[in-house]
Specification:
65% of the residues lie in helices and 14% in strands. With 88 residues, it is an alpha+beta fold. It has one domain (2-83): Winged helix-like DNA-binding domain superfamily/Winged helix DNA-binding domain (Arc Repressor Mutant, subunit A, Orthogonal Bundle), CATH 1.10.10.10. The longest helix has 16 residues, at 70-85.
Length: 88
């Protein structure tokens, strides 16, 4: 569990998870462009998220898409709730 919390603590991980929650089944370049995040950062965060089973990569119609898993939805929701509790 602590590994999952470490991964979702990264702001960019949360941005990616939020994007995939709203728009499931996105390509790497879709994520990169929509969030305006450097490709190296997107790659690192997706790798971490996949390792924790928060995001999965699926092949559909010759496209590689990224989808938030059920575990990812739960982790994202919890992380957002925790962030809303902390003062800015």
């Amino acid at each position: 569990m602590s590994d999952v919390l470490t991964v979702v603590a990264y702001t960019k991980s949360l941005e990616i998870m939020g994007f995939l929650k709203e728009k499931s089944g996105q390509r790497f370049t879709d994520i990169e462009r929509a969030l305006n995040i450097n490709s190296n950062v997107v790659n690192m965060r997706l790798k971490d998220l996949r390792t924790m089973d928060l995001v999965e990569r699926v092949d559909k119609d010759k496209k590689r898409l990224y989808v938030l898993t059920d575990k990812g939805v739960e982790a994202y929701t919890l992380a957002k709730q925790i962030r809303n509790l902390s003062p800015d």
